[in-house]
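Researcher: Please translate sequence to structure tokens.
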Amino acid sequence: MEQQSLNQELILASEQGNVGAVNQLLKDGASVEYKDADGRTALMAATQKNQIEIAKVLLDAGSDVNTRDITLLTPFICSGANGFHEILTLMLDYGADLKSVNRFGGTALLPSSEKGYLKTVQRCLDAGIPVNHANDLGWSALLEAVILGNGGRLYSDLIGLLVEAGADVNLPDRDGKSSLQHAIELKQEKVVQILKKEFVEDNETIKQAKTLAHADQYEEAIGLINQALESDPENLDLLYYKGHFLQELKRYEEALEQYQKALAIDSNDLDFYFYTANCLRLMKKPEEALAEYDKAVALDPNETFYLYHKSNYLRELGRHEEAVRAMNQLLELQPNRYDFSFHKANSLRSLGRHEEAVEAIENAIKNDPTNPLYHTHKQKSLELLGK
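Model: Translation complete:
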């Protein structure tokens, strides 16, 4: 087999999780440095599919965790952006650049904070990724978690980790607003308490269970929660934590059952639709996951959180037409959100609709005129149009 074919086979086998084929291709001389048309190495292909065993083999073979694809994404940042904390933890021992950033200027900590990947955030903070680094949109991990979170159970715990790690609650964004000001405006009461360091967990079982979970002792944490549920079976917080811990153990069906129990008790607690959606995503059931976001949107059409995270998922799935429609809905609700316009422009560019991409990015520029990120993006779209 000629060299290029060997290299291409290595990327395919890595993506598919075929350990035997990967080992054989490496023995036959396939290169871990080879990149496909998208700039992906075999390690990037494995990372994108969360192929943990393959990633270990490739890392041992000398794969570079910091090499960039055509979108300037590295395998290390990719693992953080997707919440793949096991691969991210592996990469820390293979020269991961903790200060490296994606094309939007964000470290691995930022997208994991935005998307609510609690364990990944913990791993990033433990590794020493700078907690107060701001991306090119002017947002730190804490600002992302507040602005793009919902102040619910998961995001409150995540924000607590960031604050404990020294996140600056008064760091302003490009509009001059701090995470504390945003939390107050968004009526995230528990988050406000956390940011002010006034929150105290009054449920001793949950407090102990979270400590155990932080040390990856999930079975023990679930045991504590089960004891408490015997006398308080309709406690939504207990059901959430049991579901969350089961999810971390990859017992997705059981986790989903806990979230659904909570919704049967209170179908208006929209927080649980985010958890059911996340669980179904991990179960590789995209249509069912999208339907969960839709349920929350239908119950509160003016709440942007669920629609935004649905749009994020659509982009991950490569369903940019639908993502654009979701961004249009979001912009109807909040027309001045430059981040919404930016994401819309990115999807339009992926669809080859460059004139519309320019129009979308001009809306971002109108609302944040001095941000060089948007001007660079507009120039690139103009170049693609031959202007």
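Researcher: Any highlights?
Model: The radius of gyration is 21 Å.
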